[in-house]
Design a protein that fits this description.
Elements: E1 2-7, E2 14-19, E3 22-28, H1 30-33, H2 43-53, E4 62-65, H3 73-83, H4 87-101, H5 103-111, H6 115-119, E5 122-124, H7 127-136, E6 143-153, E7 156-164, E8 167-175, H8 180-190, H9 199-205, H10 214-217, E9 221-223, E10 229-231, E11 245-246, E12 253-254, H11 260-266, H12 278-306, E13 311-314, H13 321-324, H14 327-330, E14 337-341, H15 345-356, E15 364-366
Parallel strand pairs: 1-4, 4-5, 6-13, 13-14
Antiparallel strand pairs: 1-2, 2-3, 6-7, 7-8, 8-15, 9-10, 11-12
Helix pairs in contact: 7-15, 8-12
Length: about 375
């Protein structure tokens, strides 16, 4: 069985090819476009995957995209009724969802196949299950605690699961508008780093400062006893007025996600062309401390529920290597860590793996193919 998995209409678009349970190729579009975090549709990634695999488009049995606009529809509807988000936010989300739903047309154009041929073989796989599957089902562990922490995907910001053999059971989720990745992005933008994916700069800046603002930044997030968390939404605008995001072909962009209240808490925003002074270093250090506290809070709760020392960690926040290095110190998760991070080709891998499955529901994922995928590239 041959599966082509893609991440599209998001930052870091990518494609993967899985053949008979073996990972043949996984590539990101930015490698060919020479633009970091290239968004849109992964035309070149698809072409290269097929070249590496020696595959003709007509040979592909299934297509997977790591998005499912139908996921959590009732929660989306309830959120809209309760919060009355702006028309701009609703319009932007509807337009992006429409492009995802029409991905069969984009694939048909790229592969020169009939649209109906692709539509009959196309699977929209929810964002967070692809994170979880891409991490656990290619790990060396027979059982593990599994966690995905990122910004948002299909209305979810964090998810927990337990993996055993060929089965992954989702234990819980933190839903939009609450997200540790969004909190990190907000302060990253406040510090004047406005490009998509600039969070690594703040992580790198943090060791130069002292966390004098940690108490202030702890006001942004409330840690719940069950391992969950909630943002103080008065500091954020992504849930109400909306944040314009650009996912067209090219570099992605995102408007500031914080409100004026964050400036009242921390002082004037740093301009991108302004010098980085000790105050900004202290803010970066403080953000890293607060983020680490929240992330280890989540992971400690996951251990209490699973009692498994092995951890599979995925999602954009798993790219925070400073936090990753402290997991063994601050949690009982003593086993080897297996983290696929936030690379988007692994979204496609997760989607491809789930397309190999006999069935999966919103809470349980099964993988009938051999769990440990062989890797050729």
């Amino acid at each position: 069985m041959i599966v082509l998995g893609i991440n599209a209409y998001h930052g870091d678009v990518a494609a993967v090819l899985v053949r008979d349970g073996e990972l043949v190729a996984a590539v990101e579009e930015e490698r060919f476009r020479r633009v970091k975090h290239w968004a849109g549709f992964p035309h070149e990634s698809i072409r290269v995957c097929l070249e590496i695999g020696g595959i003709q488009p007509k040979d592909i049995d299934h297509f997977a995209i790591s998005r499912n606009p139908r996921a959590h529809l009732w929660r989306k509807a309830l959120f809209t009724l309760r919060n009355h988000p702006s028309l701009g936010l609703l319009r932007d989300r509807a337009q992006n969802a429409a492009r995802v739903r029409d991905v069969a047309g984009s694939l048909a154009e790229a592969l020169h196949l009939d649209r109906q041929h692709i539509q009959a073989r196309l699977h929209g796989v929810e964002h967070h299950p692809t994170h979880l599957a891409s991490c656990f089902f290619v790990s060396p562990f027979e059982e593990a605690a599994v966690c995905a922490i990122d910004g948002f995907g299909d209305f979810v910001g964090t998810s927990w699961a337990v993996g055993r053999g060929a089965q992954l059971d989702v234990l819980d989720r933190v839903y939009f508008p609450h997200s540790l990745g969004l909190m990190y992005t907000a302060v990253t933008q406040y510090l004047g780093f406005l490009n998509y994916g600039d969070e690594y700069k703040v992580m790198g800046l943090a060791p130069y400062g002292e966390p004098h603002y940690a108490d202030a930044l702890r006001q942004l997030v409330y840690l719940k006893p069950d391992g969950g968390f909630e943002l103080d939404l008065s500091y954020f605008r992504h849930h109400s007025g909306g944040v314009n995001m650009t996912w067209d072909d090219g570099a992605p962009s995102m408007e500031p996600v914080y409100t004026h209240k964050l400036e009242q808490l921390l002082g004037p925003v740093r301009r991108p062309d302004a010098p980085v002074d000790p105050q900004h270093e202290a803010m970066a250090a403080s953000l890293q401390v607060v983020f680490e506290e929240a992330a280890t809070h989540v992971l400690n709760a996951l251990y209490r529920r699973t009692r498994l020392p092995q951890l599979c960690l995925a999602g954009g926040c798993a790219m925070n290597s400073v936090m990753n290095g402290k997991i063994r110190e601050r949690t009982p998760l003593r086993g080897s860590l297996y983290s696929t991070g936030g690379w988007r080709q692994w979204h496609g891998t997760g989607g491809g793996i789930l397309c190999l499955a006999s069935n999966f529901t919103s809470t349980t994922l099964f993988c009938d193919e051999p769990r440990l995928l062989g890797t050729r590239v």
